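User: Can you help me understand a structure? I only have the sequence.
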Amino acid sequence: MRNKKVLFIVPYPTHVAPSQRFRVELFIPYIENADIDYRIAPFMDANTWKLLYGNGNTLSKATGILKGFLKRWKTVLFDAPFFDYIFIHRESAPVGPPVFEWILAKLWRKKIIYDFDDAIWIPNTSSSNKLAASLKANWKVASICKWAYKVTPGNDYLCQYARQYNNHVIKLPTCVDMERMHNKIKEHGNHPLVVGWTGSHSTLPYLNDIIPAICKLQQQYDFTFTIIADKNPELDLPKW
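Assistant: Let's start by predicting it. Here is the structure, written out as C-alpha coordinates:
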Protein backbone atom coordinates (compact mmCIF):
# COMPACT_ATOMS: atom_id res chain seq x y z
CA MET A 1 0.00 0.00 0.00
CA ARG A 2 2.98 2.35 0.31
CA ASN A 3 2.70 5.24 -2.15
CA LYS A 4 -0.86 4.26 -2.99
CA LYS A 5 -3.68 6.81 -3.10
CA VAL A 6 -6.93 6.28 -1.18
CA LEU A 7 -10.06 8.39 -1.50
CA PHE A 8 -12.33 8.28 1.55
CA ILE A 9 -15.92 9.01 0.53
CA VAL A 10 -17.81 9.81 3.73
CA PRO A 11 -21.24 11.25 4.57
CA TYR A 12 -20.34 13.86 7.20
CA PRO A 13 -17.90 16.69 7.82
CA THR A 14 -14.90 15.58 9.87
CA HIS A 15 -14.82 15.50 13.69
CA VAL A 16 -18.60 15.35 14.22
CA ALA A 17 -20.09 11.90 13.53
CA PRO A 18 -19.18 8.98 15.82
CA SER A 19 -19.12 6.21 13.21
CA GLN A 20 -16.95 8.23 10.86
CA ARG A 21 -14.60 9.37 13.62
CA PHE A 22 -14.02 5.83 14.83
CA ARG A 23 -13.99 4.02 11.48
CA VAL A 24 -12.14 6.52 9.28
CA GLU A 25 -10.65 9.50 11.05
CA LEU A 26 -9.11 7.46 13.88
CA PHE A 27 -6.80 5.72 11.37
CA ILE A 28 -5.52 8.83 9.59
CA PRO A 29 -2.27 9.17 11.64
CA TYR A 30 -1.43 5.54 10.89
CA ILE A 31 -2.21 6.01 7.20
CA GLU A 32 0.09 9.03 7.10
CA ASN A 33 2.86 7.08 8.83
CA ALA A 34 2.50 4.37 6.18
CA ASP A 35 3.16 6.88 3.37
CA ILE A 36 -0.29 6.40 1.90
CA ASP A 37 -1.68 9.44 0.13
CA TYR A 38 -5.30 10.09 0.97
CA ARG A 39 -8.14 12.54 0.75
CA ILE A 40 -11.37 12.69 2.78
CA ALA A 41 -14.39 13.79 0.73
CA PRO A 42 -17.48 14.53 2.88
CA PHE A 43 -20.93 14.88 1.36
CA MET A 44 -22.19 17.48 3.84
CA ASP A 45 -20.48 20.65 4.93
CA ALA A 46 -20.40 21.72 8.57
CA ASN A 47 -23.28 24.19 8.25
CA THR A 48 -25.63 21.64 6.68
CA TRP A 49 -24.74 19.12 9.39
CA LYS A 50 -25.71 21.63 12.11
CA LEU A 51 -29.08 22.35 10.52
CA LEU A 52 -30.06 18.95 9.21
CA TYR A 53 -31.67 17.35 12.26
CA GLY A 54 -33.24 20.48 13.70
CA ASN A 55 -36.66 21.93 12.97
CA GLY A 56 -37.17 24.53 10.26
CA ASN A 57 -34.53 25.93 7.87
CA THR A 58 -36.00 23.82 5.07
CA LEU A 59 -34.53 25.97 2.29
CA SER A 60 -31.06 25.99 3.86
CA LYS A 61 -31.19 22.21 4.31
CA ALA A 62 -32.24 21.66 0.70
CA THR A 63 -29.49 24.02 -0.49
CA GLY A 64 -26.91 22.17 1.59
CA ILE A 65 -27.96 18.78 0.20
CA LEU A 66 -27.87 20.16 -3.35
CA LYS A 67 -24.34 21.47 -2.76
CA GLY A 68 -23.42 18.04 -1.44
CA PHE A 69 -24.60 16.38 -4.65
CA LEU A 70 -22.70 18.87 -6.80
CA LYS A 71 -19.50 18.24 -4.82
CA ARG A 72 -20.02 14.49 -5.03
CA TRP A 73 -20.43 14.60 -8.81
CA LYS A 74 -17.17 16.52 -9.09
CA THR A 75 -15.38 14.08 -6.78
CA VAL A 76 -16.61 10.96 -8.57
CA LEU A 77 -16.22 12.19 -12.14
CA PHE A 78 -13.02 14.22 -11.95
CA ASP A 79 -11.09 13.26 -8.80
CA ALA A 80 -11.75 9.54 -8.27
CA PRO A 81 -9.95 8.36 -11.45
CA PHE A 82 -6.63 9.41 -9.91
CA PHE A 83 -6.98 7.21 -6.80
CA ASP A 84 -6.05 3.54 -6.43
CA TYR A 85 -8.69 2.64 -3.83
CA ILE A 86 -12.06 4.15 -2.92
CA PHE A 87 -13.11 3.66 0.70
CA ILE A 88 -16.85 4.31 1.05
CA HIS A 89 -18.19 4.69 4.56
CA ARG A 90 -21.92 3.89 4.62
CA GLU A 91 -22.86 5.56 1.30
CA SER A 92 -21.81 8.16 -1.25
CA ALA A 93 -25.02 10.17 -0.89
CA PRO A 94 -27.69 10.22 1.84
CA VAL A 95 -30.62 9.74 -0.57
CA GLY A 96 -31.21 8.16 -3.94
CA PRO A 97 -29.96 5.06 -5.75
CA PRO A 98 -26.24 4.09 -5.82
CA VAL A 99 -25.38 6.08 -8.94
CA PHE A 100 -22.00 7.25 -7.67
CA GLU A 101 -21.02 3.78 -6.54
CA TRP A 102 -22.00 2.36 -9.93
CA ILE A 103 -19.81 4.90 -11.74
CA LEU A 104 -16.87 4.13 -9.46
CA ALA A 105 -17.23 0.35 -9.82
CA LYS A 106 -18.41 -0.07 -13.40
CA LEU A 107 -17.17 2.99 -15.28
CA TRP A 108 -13.86 3.71 -13.53
CA ARG A 109 -13.33 0.07 -12.43
CA LYS A 110 -12.09 1.19 -9.04
CA LYS A 111 -11.34 -1.07 -6.09
CA ILE A 112 -14.06 -0.11 -3.62
CA ILE A 113 -13.69 -0.88 0.07
CA TYR A 114 -17.23 -0.67 1.43
CA ASP A 115 -17.57 -0.03 5.16
CA PHE A 116 -20.60 0.10 7.45
CA ASP A 117 -21.16 -0.39 11.18
CA ASP A 118 -24.97 -0.50 11.33
CA ALA A 119 -27.73 -2.50 9.67
CA ILE A 120 -28.23 0.33 7.20
CA TRP A 121 -30.22 -1.83 4.79
CA ILE A 122 -33.11 -1.78 7.30
CA PRO A 123 -35.33 1.35 7.03
CA ASN A 124 -35.11 3.52 10.14
CA THR A 125 -37.71 6.29 10.21
CA SER A 126 -38.00 8.90 12.94
CA SER A 127 -40.04 12.09 13.25
CA SER A 128 -37.09 14.15 12.08
CA ASN A 129 -36.28 12.17 8.93
CA LYS A 130 -39.61 10.95 7.51
CA LEU A 131 -39.13 12.70 4.17
CA ALA A 132 -35.51 11.67 3.79
CA ALA A 133 -36.33 8.09 4.82
CA SER A 134 -38.72 7.75 1.89
CA LEU A 135 -35.84 8.60 -0.47
CA LYS A 136 -33.09 6.58 1.22
CA ALA A 137 -33.16 3.55 -1.11
CA ASN A 138 -31.91 1.17 1.58
CA TRP A 139 -31.81 -1.61 -1.01
CA LYS A 140 -28.65 -0.06 -2.45
CA VAL A 141 -26.53 -1.57 0.35
CA ALA A 142 -26.80 -4.99 -1.31
CA SER A 143 -25.78 -3.56 -4.68
CA ILE A 144 -22.75 -1.77 -3.27
CA CYS A 145 -21.69 -4.97 -1.51
CA LYS A 146 -21.82 -6.80 -4.86
CA TRP A 147 -19.69 -4.19 -6.61
CA ALA A 148 -17.10 -3.82 -3.84
CA TYR A 149 -13.55 -5.15 -3.95
CA LYS A 150 -13.73 -5.72 -0.18
CA VAL A 151 -16.48 -5.21 2.40
CA THR A 152 -15.56 -4.29 5.99
CA PRO A 153 -18.61 -4.59 8.27
CA GLY A 154 -18.28 -3.86 11.97
CA ASN A 155 -19.55 -7.11 13.52
CA ASP A 156 -20.57 -10.71 12.79
CA TYR A 157 -24.23 -9.86 12.11
CA LEU A 158 -23.29 -7.28 9.49
CA CYS A 159 -20.73 -9.66 7.98
CA GLN A 160 -23.38 -12.34 7.64
CA TYR A 161 -25.50 -9.94 5.60
CA ALA A 162 -22.58 -8.82 3.40
CA ARG A 163 -21.53 -12.40 2.62
CA GLN A 164 -24.81 -12.92 0.79
CA TYR A 165 -23.44 -10.61 -1.91
CA ASN A 166 -19.65 -10.68 -1.66
CA ASN A 167 -17.11 -13.37 -0.74
CA HIS A 168 -14.43 -10.85 0.24
CA VAL A 169 -15.77 -9.75 3.62
CA ILE A 170 -13.44 -8.73 6.45
CA LYS A 171 -14.82 -7.99 9.91
CA LEU A 172 -13.48 -4.63 11.04
CA PRO A 173 -14.67 -3.98 14.60
CA THR A 174 -15.02 -0.38 15.70
CA CYS A 175 -11.74 0.35 17.48
CA VAL A 176 -10.75 2.54 20.41
CA ASP A 177 -7.40 4.31 20.19
CA MET A 178 -5.73 3.54 23.53
CA GLU A 179 -2.48 5.32 22.57
CA ARG A 180 -3.52 8.81 21.50
CA MET A 181 -7.02 9.40 22.88
CA HIS A 182 -8.80 7.07 25.27
CA ASN A 183 -5.85 6.46 27.57
CA LYS A 184 -6.70 8.33 30.76
CA ILE A 185 -6.69 6.51 34.09
CA LYS A 186 -9.26 7.63 36.64
CA GLU A 187 -9.91 6.66 40.24
CA HIS A 188 -13.50 5.50 40.33
CA GLY A 189 -13.84 4.91 44.07
CA ASN A 190 -14.35 8.53 45.10
CA HIS A 191 -17.76 9.28 43.62
CA PRO A 192 -21.19 7.63 43.18
CA LEU A 193 -21.54 5.09 40.42
CA VAL A 194 -22.36 6.37 36.92
CA VAL A 195 -23.96 4.19 34.24
CA GLY A 196 -23.60 5.61 30.73
CA TRP A 197 -25.53 5.29 27.49
CA THR A 198 -24.49 6.86 24.19
CA GLY A 199 -26.40 7.23 20.94
CA SER A 200 -28.20 9.81 18.82
CA HIS A 201 -31.68 11.20 18.28
CA SER A 202 -32.50 8.23 16.02
CA THR A 203 -31.69 5.65 18.70
CA LEU A 204 -33.13 7.47 21.73
CA PRO A 205 -36.46 5.55 21.39
CA TYR A 206 -34.59 2.34 22.28
CA LEU A 207 -34.08 3.74 25.77
CA ASN A 208 -37.76 3.05 26.42
CA ASP A 209 -36.99 -0.67 26.49
CA ILE A 210 -34.49 -0.40 29.34
CA ILE A 211 -35.86 2.47 31.45
CA PRO A 212 -38.04 0.15 33.62
CA ALA A 213 -34.92 -1.89 34.48
CA ILE A 214 -32.86 1.25 35.20
CA CYS A 215 -35.66 2.61 37.39
CA LYS A 216 -35.82 -0.63 39.36
CA LEU A 217 -32.05 -0.65 39.84
CA GLN A 218 -32.06 2.96 41.04
CA GLN A 219 -34.46 1.93 43.80
CA GLN A 220 -31.82 -0.50 45.07
CA TYR A 221 -28.54 1.28 44.25
CA ASP A 222 -27.32 4.85 44.28
CA PHE A 223 -26.19 5.69 40.75
CA THR A 224 -26.70 8.29 38.05
CA PHE A 225 -27.81 7.31 34.56
CA THR A 226 -25.89 9.52 32.11
CA ILE A 227 -27.04 10.05 28.52
CA ILE A 228 -24.63 11.17 25.78
CA ALA A 229 -26.59 12.21 22.69
CA ASP A 230 -27.33 15.10 20.35
CA LYS A 231 -30.80 15.71 21.82
CA ASN A 232 -32.22 15.68 25.32
CA PRO A 233 -34.49 12.69 26.03
CA GLU A 234 -37.52 12.73 28.32
CA LEU A 235 -36.87 10.15 31.02
CA ASP A 236 -38.94 9.27 34.05
CA LEU A 237 -35.95 8.61 36.29
CA PRO A 238 -34.94 10.15 39.63
CA LYS A 239 -31.27 10.65 38.70
CA TRP A 240 -30.10 11.07 35.13
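Now, to help you interpret it: The mean pLDDT is 91. The CA atoms of residues 101 and 107 lie 10 Å apart. Let me know which part you'd like to focus on.
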